[in-house]
Amino acid sequence: MLVRMVSTAPADEVQVVVAHSERATLRVGDVFLKVDPDQDRIDAEVAAMALAPVPTARILWRKPPVLALAALPGAPLGRLGTPSTASAAAWCAAGATLRELHTAPVPARPGGAGRTVDVLTAELDTECAWLVAHAVLPAAVVTRNRRVAEAALRPWPAAFTHGDLQIAHVFTHGERVTGILDWSEAGRGDALHDLATLTLGQEDRLPDLLAGYGSPVDLAVIRAWWSLRSLLAVRWLLDHGFDPASPGCELDVLHARM
Q1: Each residue of 181-228: pLDDT tens digit?
Q2: Cα angle vertex 130, ends 124, 132, to 5°?
Q3: 65: preceding bond cis by omega (within 30 degrees)
Q4: E strand intervals along the chain
Q5: Is residue 10 within 8 Å of residue 29, measured between CB atoms?
Q6: Are 74 and 171 in contact (CB under 8 A)?
Q7: Do the Cβ atoms of 199 and 166 come closer than 8 Å?
Q8: At the topology level of CATH, where does 73-256 sit?
């Protein structure tokens, strides 16, 4: 499995943006090609992009299993594992854009941020047991983060959520958001999940994001989602060739709770 993140690509070269056994994204010049054999997932992404009241990438064409998207202007807010160099104004703009998304009419489809509390609790119990059994993390770190994560396991008001709002998915230019990528997990869910995912490993940028968001949030729930998302992600990342132990990534996030 090959993973390679790029910001530009010569027109005569194929660049791998991200790839694993489920899907891949390639870049050729100013065109991104998403290759995904799960057409239900692509259908959901296209539908969410049509509904979202925020900038998204322009769809150029679609021929299963490929979806072609135009490159977004600007640059991503950052990359997981590397401190964001985007300005406070850019983060503030991202917050305002997310507020617009979260207050839009709620889709009928549950998204990645919309799993029920019972489902999340069961997944969390399974993953915590696996992390300890396979000595991926010390039991004390898992126990502490499991306790922190409990604050996210509560009823939440349904919102239109992106569902997988990684920092590399939000593009800005100057003081405006030019687009948000990868909507396959979008749907009804917990708005605080989006805020937490965007600031995972970028905790110092949360005040700028919330300044633009303009609505009070429960910081304990944001911290809970940092722990919960990281605990749930580690095994998947290892199984798909990613390294959650890279500086600033999921294992560092979990250790930071200690």
Answers
A1: 999 999 999 999 999 999 999 999 999 999 999 999 999 999 999 999
A2: 105
A3: yes
A4: 14-19, 24-28, 31-35, 59-63, 66-70, 75-76, 159-161, 170-173, 176-180, 187-189
A5: yes
A6: yes
A7: no
A8: Aminoglycoside 3'-phosphotransferase; Chain: A, domain 2 (3.90.1200)
Gap between the Cα atoms of 198 and 248, Å rounded? 14
Q: What is the rounded distance in angstroms from the CA atom of residue 89 to the CA atom of residue 34?
A: 30
Q: Which among 158, 109, 104, 147 has a CA at the least distance from the CA of 125? A: 147
pLDDT digits over 156-172, tens only?
999 999 999 999 999 99
Copy the structure tokens of residue 180: 């948000």
User: What amino acid occupies position 158?
Assistant: A
73, 98, 120, 219, 220 from 227: Cα distances, Å: 32, 21, 13, 13, 11
C-alpha pair distances (Å), 103 with each of 98, 144, 157, 247? 9, 33, 11, 34
Between CA 68 and CA 75, with CA 72 as vertex, the angle to 5 degrees is 135
Measured CA to CA, the distance from residue 96 to residue 86 in angstroms comes to: 15
Is the CB of residue 33 less than 8 Å from the CB of residue 27? yes
State the DSSP string of 87-122: -HHHHHHHHHHHHHHHTSPPPSSB-TT---HHHHHH
The alpha carbon torsion through 165, 149, 236, 177 (nearest 10 deg) reads 10
pTM above 0.90, yes or no: yes
